[in-house]
Design brief:
By secondary structure, the protein is α/β, with parallel strands linked by helices. The protein is built from 8 helices and 6 strands; from the N terminus they run ααβαβαβαααβββα. The protein has a domain of 172 residues: HUPs (Rossmann fold), CATH 3.40.50.620. It starts with 7 loop residues before the first helix and ends in a 57-residue tail after the last helix. The protein binds iron/sulfur cluster.
């Protein structure tokens, strides 16, 4: 049994992750284990991308006690919100919205128009990173749809780990899945998904920072294109926040 609290947590989780790797434990089994171990203290961070839609389906079937939340930046595509609604309708789930302290208009008033174009790290910090901290406060475990082959920054994603930045367990049940695995799951189970994926958007975030990618382009090339930024900051290790927000 994994005990809560560092440093015992760290060693126990590394051992657990190694065992799951060795035994080829599947994503459903991992989600079921999380539900058994953490119950309602575990939450799925859902961005309504393809991976998260698959996880909502999995949770609804094998671990309905696990809650679901999303970060409503005020800048999500209409299609993303419509995907949320379709998942709600299909599975009876109620994803909880966590929002930034400032509305988009208030942010423009305080920091100038289109902060995302000038200081995307600061914008992500206010509209995503701080709301994530609020969502995870006091919880024991969060689940993400991170996959190793999504980006070089995600290559070493473990199946389960201690999240020192937020001080809780972080579980990435799809870490070993390929994009094809995700789409096979979605097709086989007829899972609702964001139709923008069919229009050249493999990775979908806020509308000002997301564009379609061309065939053969890196799937995440459409996020913060031309800025050098590759991650919103939700998955950075403790102490690795960009300089602009330290
Ligand atoms: S993705 Fe863009 S618009 Fe959304 S919070 Fe980050 S910088 Fe701001």
């Amino acid at each position: 049994m994994v005990e809560v609290g560092e440093p015992g947590q760290l060693a126990a989780l590394e051992e657990l992750a190694a065992g799951w790797e060795r035994e080829g434990t599947g994503a459903e089994e991992i989600v079921g284990w999380i539900s058994e171990r953490f119950g309602t203290e575990a939450l799925l961070a859902c961005s309504f991308g393809a991976e998260d839609c698959a996880l909502v389906d999995m949770i609804a079937r094998v671990a309905p006690r696990i809650g679901i939340f999303y970060l409503d930046t005020g800048l999500l595509f209409e299609e993303t919100l419509a995907t949320r609604d379709r998942l709600q309708e299909r599975y009876g789930v109620r994803p909880v919205a966590f929002r930034p302290r400032l509305t988009v208009a208030e942010q423009a008033e305080a920091h100038g128009e289109a902060l995302w174009a000038r200081e995307p790290d600061q914008c992500c910090h206010m509209r995503k990173v701080l709301p994530l901290e609020a969502a995870l406060a006091g919880r024991l475990c969060w689940i993400t749809g991170l996959r190793r082959d999504q980006a070089p920054t995600r290559r070493n994603t473990p199946l389960i780990q201690w999240d020192a930045a937020h001080r809780l367990v972080k579980c990435n049940p799809l870490a070993r899945w390929t994009a094809e695995d995700v789409w096979t799951y979605i097709r086989n189970r007829n899972v609702p998904y964001n139709p923008m994926h069919d229009r050249g958007f493999p990775s979908i975030g806020c509308w000002p920072c997301t564009r379609a990618v061309a065939a053969g382009e890196d799937p995440r090339a459409g996020r913060w294109a031309g800025t050098g930024k590759t991650e919103c900051g939700l998955h950075l290790p403790a102490g690795a926040q960009p300089e602009a927000v330290r």
